[in-house]
Amino acid sequence: MARMQTPPPGKERSGKDRSRNDRVVARWLWDSFIRHRTGFILMAMVLMVAEALTLGALSYLVRPMFDDVLIEGERGRVYVIALAMAAVFVGRGLAQLAHKAVMAWQAELATADLQSMLLAHLIGLDQGFFRRNAPGVLIERVRGDSEALRRVFTGLITGLGRDGSAVIVLFGVALWTDWQWTLVAIVGVPLLGLPLVALQRLIRRRSAEARRAAAESSNRLDEAFHGIATLQLSGSETRELARFGLIMRDFARKMTRAMIGKAAMPTVMDIGAAIGLGLVLIVGGLQIIEGTRTVGQFMSFFTALGFLFDPLRRFTALTAEWQNILASLERTHELLQTRSSVTNPPPPHLPPPARAQASVELRNVRFAYDSEPVLRDLSFVAPAGRTTAIVGPSGAGKSTVFGLLTRLADVTAGEVLIGGQDVRRMDLAALRGLYAVVSQDTALFDETIRDNILMGAPEATEEQLAAALRDAHVDQFLPQLPQGLDTLAGPRGSSLSGGQRQRVAIARALLRNAPVLLLDEATSALDSRSEALVQDALDRLARGRTTLVIAHRLSTVRKADQIIVMGHGRVVEQGDHDSLLARGGVYARLYGLQFGQTDTGRPD
Q1: What is the rounded CA–CA span in Å between residue 434 and residue 452?
Q2: Does residue 302 sit within a domain?
Q3: Are residues 373 and 254 in the same domain?
C-alpha cells in the first residue's frame, strides 16, 4: 500500500535530521519551481534594487535640505532638492509596482504547477492510500499546503530582494554619513542571536501543528457538505456545528501560536533598535552641541537609520516566514514521495487478450487491507463471453475482487489472470482499457452529459454516440433536459435522477466497447420502472462480453451462466441458479430470505 514517510505522531525529528530534510526540500524547491524562473526573478531583483536605491537617495537628500537650505538659507537649492525628492518617490512607486507584478505572476504560475503536480501524483496512487486519507484532508494538502509556494515568491524572494537591498543601501548611507554612529547603532544586534534561533524553532513546530489542524477542518467541511441531506433529515445540524466549532477553535489556537511566534521576531528586533537609537541620540546629540557634527549630518543619518530598521525588521521576519513555509512544503514534498503499491511493470508487457479470449480467473488469491484479511485463497474462473454473478453477504469480499481485476490494488498472494495472463505483467493503461464498469455509485462529474459519456471514448463519432444513447435509453429523457446533451450533470450528477445517472453510465460503457464488463450493484438503488429500463440497457451491454456481476438482489442474477457464492473471502458454492437452489445450501438460504421481501441493495 502507498505510504507516506513521516515521523510518528508526537515524535520530532532530531536537529540533524531536520537540517538534512530542510536541504532536501530546499533543493526540490529550487529544481522544480525556481531554477527555470531565474530570468524573471533577476528582472524583479533589479527593480527591487532600484527601489532600495531610492530610499538611499532620499535619506542622502535630507542632509543638504537641512544644512544648505534650512540652516544656510540657500533659496536656489530648494527647487532642486524638491524636484529630486519628487523624482525619487515616483521612481520608487514605479519600481515597486513593476517588481510586485512580475513576482505575483511567477507565484501564481508556480502554485498552479505544484497543484497540478500534486493531483497528477495522487491520482496514480492505489486505493489503500485513499482508504487512509479522507478527501477533505487531500484537498487541503493540494490547495492549502501549496499556498506556501506562493509565499516563497511574494514573501520570501521579494523580501530577500527588496528588504535585503534596502538594508545594504541604507547601511551604506549610514556608514558614509558617520561610521562611528553606525557602530553605536548596531551594538545591540549580537545580543539577539539566541532569542531569534529559539523563535525559529518554535515557529516551525507551531506552523506544522496549524497545517495539520487546517487539514482536519477541511475534511470536516467536506464530509458535512457531502452528507448535507443526512444531517438535515436526522436533525444533526447542531451536533455537526458543535463538532466543527471544536475543530476550528483548535485550529485557531494553533494558528494563533504560530502567528505570535512570527510576530515576536520583529519585536525582538525592535528591542535591538531601541538600544541602538538611544545610544545614537546620546552620542550624536552631544557631538552636535559640541559643534563637531552638523544637524544635516544627524538628520541624514537618522533618516537612513529610520528607513533601515523597517526593512531590517521585515528581513529578520523572513527567517520566521521561511520556517512557516518549510512546515507546509515539507508536508507537500513528503506527499510527493508517497509511492503506490500498484505500479506499471517494466517492458516487455504481455499483450491484452482479444474479446473472445478475455476469460477471468483468480487463483488462490489472498488480499488484506493493512492487516485485515479480506480474501482467503479465493479461486474461480469466469469464462469468456459468459455472465458470472458474484453474491454473498456484506463483507464477503465481492467488491474487492473488482479492485484486484482492475489493479486498483494488488493481491497479497496468488494470481489474477485475464485471458490466462497475469494482470501484473500487463501495461496498466492497456489492462484498464479491457474493462467497462457500471456501479451503484455512478461517478458523474459536473460537466455536460455529453462530456460524461465521452470520457471513456473521446474519439467516438456522432453515429456511435447516438447508438449508445439509444441502447442505454438515454434518448428517452434527453428531451426533458433544458439543453439536451449539453446540460450540466451537476456535482456528482445531482441534476439527474438515479435511473438517469445509471443510463448515462451505461452509455459511457457502451461507447468504451471493452471486452470485460463489471457491474457492481448497478440496479439496486432504483425504482421498478427505472430498474427495468436500466436492466434492459445492461442486457444489451453484456452481449458478447465477459460479464461479472456483483448483486445482493438475487432476483437480478437468476439468468447468469454461473453464480459464485462467497463467504469470508472464499468461494463456498458455485453453479447456476437452479442447481444452487436444488443443492439447498448457502445460496438457497439467501434466496429464501429474500423471496418476497424488499432488498435494500446495500453495496458490499
Answers
A1: 19
A2: yes
A3: no
Contact 550, 520 (CB under 8 A): yes
Q: Which of 489, 500, 494, 501 is nearest to 442 (CA)?
A: 501
Residue 493 CA to residue 78 CA, distance in Å, equals 73
Residue 163 CB neighbour total at 10 angstroms = 21
pLDDT tops 80 at residue 579: yes
A 10 A CB-CB count for 417 gives 18
Sheet holding 570-575, edge to edge: 435-439, 516-520, 546-550, 387-391, 562-567, 570-575
| Residue 571 bridge partners (DSSP) | 566
Looking at the predicted structure, is the pLDDT value of residue 364 above 90?
yes
Q: How far is CA 257 from CA 114, 209, 346, in A?
A: 28, 10, 49
Kindly tell me if the per-residue pLDDT of 9 is higher than 50. no
Q: How far is CA 447 from the centre of its chain?
A: 21
Of the candidates 503, 432, 418, the residue with the CA atom closest to the CA atom of residue 468: 503
pTM of the prediction?
0.70
- pLDDT tens for 264-289 read 666 666 666 666 666 766 766 677 67
Phi-psi region of 157 (alpha: psi -120 to 50; beta: other; left: phi over 0): alpha
What CATH number should be reported for the domain holding residue 247?
A: 1.20.1560.10
- The tens digit of pLDDT for each residue in 164-177 reads 888 888 777 777 77
